[in-house]
Design a protein that fits this description.
The protein is an alpha/beta fold. It contains 7 helices and 13 strands. Strands 1, 2, 3, 4, 6, 7, 8, 9, 10, 11 and 12 form an 11-stranded mixed sheet that branches. The longest helix is centred in the last third of the chain and has 17 residues.
């Protein structure tokens, strides 16, 4: 069975404004997501599952899903704040869903094999899909053995401002030991740096792996996620801004030695629309990749 691509497309871009997942950045109106689907198809993925919000389903189907017909099978699932485990109810005043790992849980009923998780509005690049596609192709029947693409931090920076990244530590075998969220990472005088909690400047090597939310799982991950989500809700349901993130779940499994996560290196350069000022840069970078022969002028 070919691996499945699970695309997280339910979020709104608060800093950018609007549904940036539907914003055309390619020469024929292609979205960043279109390039991800194109890369996934040529990397051996056999199906795509989108998680979206019900309120923009029609717009999404008209602008996005129709173009993939005859290219790859597509399914859609929905994320909403009231989709909770049995025995739990959405607290009054909660309007936003519960974060990225809650979104992943929405795929439990339709995903039955190894799958990769990506953000809809991030450009990951051809090599990253090839790397994770190969890893997941050999994961059928396995359990507790996951992976993530560790992008080199120097390939993930924004020219418009500082960024937050999950900086990864690995053991001698190349498996994930820790993910620490670092904020205000930027290149200053040629060096990539951030300021730690004690006010000290920390320099990062160009090739330090960081998480860009490109994960590989097997279906057993859903059961772990559901059980831990119950604990999360018991502790955090009253906090209307609390979110159940993928790294939170992964860290729980890794620190308790329940599962391991292989960190996969990639030469791909990540980019995305973090700030509105990033948009033209994305358009220019995609144009350059097309001119270099990485992508055709028209994808679908």
């Amino acid at each position: 069975m070919k691996p499945i691509l699970f695309v997280l497309a339910a979020g709104m871009g608060s800093r950018y404004g609007g549904l940036k997942q539907l914003d055309g950045v390619g020469p024929n109106g292609e979205t960043i997501m279109d390039y991800s689907i194109f890369d996934a198809i040529r990397s051996g993925f056999g199906r795509v599952v989108f998680v979206i919000r019900k309120d923009f389903e029609q717009d999404f189907r008209e602008k996005i899903i129709g173009k993939y017909e005859n290219h790859i099978p597509v399914e859609t699932v929905f994320q909403s704040p009231d989709k909770l485990p049995e025995g739990f109810s959405c607290p009054e005043g909660r309007t936003k869903p519960w974060g990225t790992n809650h979104a992943v849980l929405m795929g439990k009923g339709v995903i039955n094999g190894p799958f990769a998780v990506i953000n809809a509005d991030d450009f990951y690049g051809r090599d990253s899909f090839g790397v994770i596609g190969r890893e997941l192709s050999g994961a059928r029947g396995k359990a507790n053995d996951y992976c993530m693409v560790g992008f080199r931090v120097g390939n993930t920076l924004s020219e418009s401002g500082s960024v937050a990244r999950g900086v990864c530590g690995t053991d001698d075998g190349g498996y994930l030991a820790s993910v620490v969220e670092r904020t205000a990472i930027e290149r200053i005088d040629g060096k990539i740096q951030f300021v730690d909690g004690d006010g000290r400047i920390v320099i990062l090597d160009e090739n330090t792996p960081v998480s860009m939310n490109m994960w590989g799982f097997t279906p057993d991950y859903f059961d772990y996620s559901e059980e831990y989500f119950k604990d999360f809700l018991r502790k955090n349901a009253d906090n209307l801004k609390s979110e159940y993130f993928i790294p939170l779940m992964v860290n729980e499994l890794v620190t308790k030695n329940i599962a391991r996560v292989k960190v996969l290196d990639t030469t791909s350069k990540w980019f995305g629309v973090t700030y509105a000022a990033d948009r033209q840069g994305v358009v220019d970078k995609i144009r350059a990749l097309i001119d270099a022969g990485e992508y055709p002028e028209k994808l679908f």
